[in-house]
TrEMBL record:
Lineage per the UniProt record: Bacteria, Pseudomonadati, Myxococcota, Myxococcia, Myxococcales
Pfam family, one: FliL
Gene name of this polypeptide: fliL
Localisation per UniProt entry: Cell membrane
Chain spans, region Disordered: 44-79
Name of this protein: Flagellar protein FliL
Keyword NAD carried by entry: no
Record organism: Anaeromyxobacter paludicola
């Protein structure tokens, strides 16, 4: 195309495209830097979309350390394994069960450990009265867990949840 002012064709290599691309790239870089700077310079904060707040995972972890209820999983105490002779008139059946007790804060772990003899005694008494049929299936295990949480509360152990971590019947 001819130049409208001079009427002569443009000189080779004087295209405006490189100049336009350089300007667009500069605007993109400035936009990204402005976005990051306005979000506090932390990639997780930028992704979270809220300035001045920690990501949810970090926040939940800190609340759990300070004992706020419902903030996520709290500290837990692994109880020693239980080997129980089940109530069964036809054959000798044994169950080996492992538990973890979730508590609200670190100080509660000491309370559970201090009551460990009472907890073991109450768990063994309750479990040895169960038959294989009562322990069978998820419904049976959920009933047992509910009863054992009640036992933990009666013994005075601060409990948020009880988890069965191993269960074998022979």
């Amino acid at each position: 195309m001819a130049d409208p002012e001079t009427g002569s064709p443009p000189a080779p290599g004087t295209s405006k495209l490189p100049l336009i691309l350089a300007g667009v790239n500069t605007l993109l870089i400035v936009g990204v830097l402005a976005f990051v700077m306005l979000r506090g310079g932390h990639p997780a904060k930028a992704a979270d979309g809220e300035h001045g707040k920690e990501p949810a995972g970090e926040q939940a972890g800190k609340e759990g350390e300070h004992g706020k209820e419902g903030a996520g999983p709290g500290p837990s105490v692994k109880l020693p394994d239980f080997t129980i002779h089940l109530r069964n008139p036809e054959a000798d059946r044994y169950a080996r069960i492992s538990f973890e007790v979730e508590v609200g804060m670190e100080l509660d772990k000491e309370k559970v450990n201090a009551r460990l003899p009472q907890i073991r005694d109450a768990f063994i008494a309750y479990l040895s009265d169960r038959s294989l049929e009562e322990l069978r299936g998820s419904e049976g295990l959920n009933r047992v867990k509910t009863a054992l949480v009640d036992i933990l509360k009666q013994v005075g152990a601060p409990v948020r949840a009880l988890y069965i971590t191993d269960f074998v019947v022979q």
